[in-house]
Design brief:
Its EC number is 1.2.1.38. The structure is a single chain. The mean pLDDT is about 95. The chain is an alpha/beta fold. A 7-stranded mixed beta sheet has the order 8-9-7-10-13-12-11. It has 12 helices and 13 strands. It has 2 domains: about 120 residues, Rossmann fold, CATH 3.40.50.720; about 160 residues, 2-Layer Sandwich (Dihydrodipicolinate Reductase, domain 2). The two termini are about 35 Å apart. The longest helix has 15 residues.
Length: about 350
């Protein structure tokens, strides 16, 4: 059995990790870390875990935790993992970090967009960006895995094949994305109160959202050029889900069949990426509660642009599910172990 510890187990992503790992046949959760609920029963924080999880919440002592487990998940705000990790810890366990601390390779870019100093830049270079469909072989050998952001997972996978094959002009790429409120975390914030969110949709982080450089960096690797794009997220009154609608100018005239063949080249054998049938658009309700990414596209011959669409559950493929997928790869397990989650409906 793989012994797992979770720091930040009472946030939304941490709670989802617990939900997934409790049904994973090769994992035992040994440490339910939560600075806010130390010594409280985990099931008193998440009542859905009543008579399923009997453990009490512990602190975020990564040094002590590293001596008890094989893998540590850090589902914490930016900066915490970087402040705790050290060489001794990495010599004992694998770390899968759900924050942005090790996603961006340029320290100055990270510090500029996140507004904090990086506490352990010496580990950035070795950290593997854990987008499994793209970096699978590197993930298998990693001891420090940077779990991608939710918006970024959806945005990158939706455009990746066309960026890789040079079918879109990267300088024209615009990403418009919508997310449910769980993406903002479990902390109490006035903008996320029911009366503020219900019956409303709003853009936020316009031209400043912190996932922008992550998307630019990864699509830059794919296209082989520097990418600068517009990314605008929106908050919608639902619990879960992300829908990304992406627009770009085509570099040449293409048919539906040609574009579909490009997506199939990269995703036909991917368990968790579903390229939809012609004229079927992704919807968040068809991926809710699952680790799937649904992708569709439409060619607009009138404007010589292509419209790419992707949908994920932000807490599963956008966070906890992807983290477990990374763990499976890193420990030589079947990639889908514990993740065969049929989307919930309604």
């Amino acid at each position: 059995m793989i012994r797992a510890g979770i720091i930040g187990s009472t946030g939304y992503a941490g709670g989802e990790l617990v939900r997934i790992l409790t049904r994973h046949k090769d994992v035992e959760i040994k440490w339910f870390g939560s600075r806010s609920y130390i010594d409280q029963k985990y099931a008193s924080v998440y009542q859905n875990m009543f008579q399923i999880v009997d453990a009490v919440c512990m602190d975020d002592n990564m040094d002590e935790l590293a001596g008890q487990v094989d893998v540590i998940f850090t589902a914490t705000p930016q900066g915490l993992c970087a402040s705790l990790v050290n060489e001794e810890i990495l010599s004992k366990v694998k770390i899968i970090d759900l924050s942005a601390d090790f996603r961006i390779k340029d320290v100055a870019t990270y510090e500029n967009w996140y507004g904090i100093s990086h506490k352990s830049p010496q580990f950035i270079e070795e950290a593997v960006y854990g987008l499994c469909e793209i970096n699978r072989e590197d993930v298998k050998k990693a001891r420090l895995i940077a779990n991608p952001g939710c918006y970024t997972t959806c945005s990158i996978l939706t455009a990746y094949p066309l960026a890789k094959e040079g079918l879109i002009d990267m300088s024209t790429l615009i990403i418009d994305a919508k997310s449910g409120t769980s993406g903002a975390g479990r902390g109490a914030k006035v903008p996320n109160l029911y009366c503020e969110v219900n019956e409303n949709i709003k853009a936020y982080g316009v031209a400043t959202h912190r996932h922008t450089p992550e998307i630019e960096e990864q699509l830059g690797y794919a296209s082989g050029e520097e990418v600068v794009l517009n990314f605008t997220p929106h908050l919608v009154p639902m619990n879960r889900g992300i829908l990304a609608t992406e627009y770009a100018k085509l570099t040449r005239e293409v048919s539906y069949e040609e574009v579909k063949a490009v997506y199939d080249k990269y995703y036909a054998d991917e368990k968790f990426v579903r390229v939809l049938d012609k004229d079927v658009c992704p919807e968040t309700k068809w991926v809710e509660g699952s680790n799937y990414v649904d992708i569709g596209f439409k060619i607009d011959t009138r404007t010589n642009r292509i419209i790419m669409m992707g949908a994920i559950d932000n807490l599963v493929k956008g966070a906890a599910g992807q983290a477990v997928q990374n763990m499976n790869l890193a420990f030589g397990l079947p990639e889908d172990e514990g993740l065969n989650l049929v989307p919930m409906f309604p």
